[in-house]
Design brief:
This protein has nine helices and seven strands. The protein is α/β, with parallel strands linked by helices and 290 residues long. It has two domains: 80 residues, no CATH class; 189 residues, 3-Layer(aba) Sandwich (Rossmann fold), CATH 3.40.50. The protein has a seven-stranded mixed sheet, with helices on both faces. α2 packs across α9. The relative contact order is 0.11. About 2% of the residues have low confidence.
Length: 290
């Protein structure tokens, strides 16, 4: 869990400032009685400030230890009771699983979570990096008879076809390896939530997001679909910041029980927006009803 160190930094800085001023005063002591009185008063005031800062630090330290204790107790409770807490939570929920820049390592995990808690996977849709290739976009336009000019056009087309339930029309894009669609149900158009797994090893997540993911999120939101971005705690690259800016919920630790609980709670509610998990970007460990 991230702990804000601001109080320690400010306090330590104040302590060194006080000591520095005290030393400076000491070096400039002279025989002037009035000056000595002023200096003595300053030193006394600094001593009082130092004592106050130390007392405040002790209080903050105790509060942090207490917070850590409560945090660890919550994690332990979730780990012990996760299945009981989530059993049947996704009953009746139809969820699409989307992966960008290829099939990420979390796709199977996400589908497993959805099925384990009685939800159903509408389809698995993989957007490959080829969908950002300008030459392939031109070729896709020729093969489909559509007027594709950009990656955004192709993404919008894909979801429009899914909405019609006509998966066969996406065959040209699959032949060009721009996408891979695995229908998990007969009615792929029937889904209300989408869990997105983004590439975890990008050296420039903002660039990657802007070239593909943002079009996926934008289209889904225009169709009133609930969007959650999910990643593992150990992901080398985090997309939380980019997805959060686009009003999507995020979970950064689906490889942990608390992360699974967060994901299930978000899909069940289909309304909450926030960043959940263990990273510094998380607003809380798990979603909490206000």
């Amino acid at each position: 869990m991230h702990i804000n160190m601001k109080y320690y930094i400010v306090s330590i800085g104040a302590i060194f400032l006080a000591l520095g001023i005290g030393i400076l005063v000491g070096f400039n002591l002279n025989n002037n009685e009035e000056m000595n009185k002023q200096q003595a008063a300053i030193i006394e005031q600094l001593d009082e400030e130092f004592s106050s800062i130390k007392e405040e630090n002790d209080t903050i330290s105790a509060d942090l230890k207490n917070t850590d204790k409560k945090y660890n107790a919550l994690v332990a409770y979730v780990n012990e009771n996760a299945d009981a807490l989530m059993t049947g939570s996704l009953s009746g929920k139809k969820v699409a699983v989307v992966s960008t820049y290829g099939r990420t390592e979390n796709v199977d995990k996400l589908k497993e979570i959805i099925n384990q808690y009685d939800g159903s996977v509408a389809f698995e849709l993989i957007f490959n990096k080829e969908i950002t290739d300008k030459e392939l976009i031109k070729e896709a336009a020729e093969k489909t008879g559509e007027k594709f000019k950009s990656t955004e056009d192709v993404v919008n087309y894909v979801f429009d076809i899914v909405k019609r339930g006509n998966a066969e029309s996406l065959a040209p894009l699959e032949e060009l390896k721009m996408i891979d669609l695995n229908s998990e149900s007969e009615d792929i158009a029937n889904f209300s939530s989408v869990v997105i797994s983004a590439l975890s090893e990008s050296s420039d997540p903002a660039k990657q997001f802007n070239e593909l993911d943002k079009f996926v999120v934008s289209k889904l939101k225009s169709e009133n679909k609930y969007v959650v971005e999910a990643q593992s705690k150990g992901a080398k690259t985090s997309y939380v910041e980019q997805y959060a800016k686009n009003k999507a919920a995020t979970v950064d630790n689906i490889d942990e029980k608390t992360g699974v609980l967060s994901l299930v709670a978000l899909i069940q509610d289909e309304n909450l927006v926030g960043n959940f998990g263990r990273l510094d970007t998380a607003s809380s460990l798990i979603p909490m009803e206000k």
